[in-house]
Amino acid sequence: MALRLPLGFRAGAVRAGIKPSGKPDLALLASGLPASWAYAATQNRAAAPSVHRGRRLYAGGGLLRAVVVNAGNANCATGSRGVLDDERMARAAALRLGLPVEEVLTASTGVIGVPLPVERIEEALPRLDLTPFADAFAEAILTTDLRVKTAEAQVGGARIVGVAKGSGMIHPRMATMLAFLVTDAALPQEALRAGFGRVVDRTFNQVTVDGDTSTNDLAVLLANGAHGEVPLSAFWEALEEVARELARMIARDGEGATKLMVVRVLGAATEEEARWAARAVAASPLWKSALYGNDPNWGRILAALGNSGARFDPLKTRIVLQGILLYDGEALPFDREAASQAMRGEEVEVLVDLRQGEAQGEAFGCDLTEGYVRINALYTT
After folding, report:
1. pTM for the complete prediction?
2. Disulfide engineering: 166 pairs with which of 87, 204, 237, 250, CB 3.0-4.6 Å?
């Protein structure tokens, strides 16, 4: 079933000839009303022109009406030409929609260091049809992804729809992927910007596939107010659930992955430390490899926790894998074959209790397989 966007939003996609596959690779998301917005971008210092431009627009404090996205080319490390090409892409989208260029955000994803064929974008945008549905947009922004990633929720009669892409070069230092969240709820810009970072920290910043933070990635939230006001606390709960579902999808679709890993940490001294500990386990190449081999080698989990920066005492820590208690301040006897069998599902949960406080957090990752190496060994050849 097609995914309908919230009131006032339209989206579409077209083939611009950027992806070698010939698939749709240019996407446009537009609001019929000026939208409040919140934004978070990669902390990689090699950030692309689209990220630098987005930060300037965000600092300017104006409202937003559209986002134009190209896939297949990161337009990163392309010098002064890349800056001009990013601006040309924004102007072409603004012309297509009849908007001021400062109301159009840009995003790019794909190969680094290759000039953007912006002339193809300028030629293709007039052919792009907009509809009230998110599906074509969600498909066109993919690169090595195997699955489209969308989620939705309702709050007070308003709707929230999220679309994301991400499969590789993913590690938490903002939102290492692309995520576009839209709602017809009426929310002041100040409130959006005050709360969005917390949602990002709990969800997108808790995804890790390979330990590499991308140069291009971002998360943006647009609220156009077409429905009306909603309770703010309920809105943040619903938005976090949408973002969490997208984060899980990204981790599950990690390059070469065969299973999703969910790490839940309880009993941390602070929420931030709980997130550190969960990310450390989800990011460990040793544990990710053990996960692929269905090897309940809990020592790798313990080692990752001890290196996470969270307050930690191995004599107090408890580790549970797929409901099976493996460690509780000391090594415990357990049925290794039963534990290995329990790891063979498509989702594996690691539960840790640090017994340092009351805070909790979670992270989302995947196993590390030969498939990841194959994909990235031949990415540009």
Report:
1. 0.93
2. 250
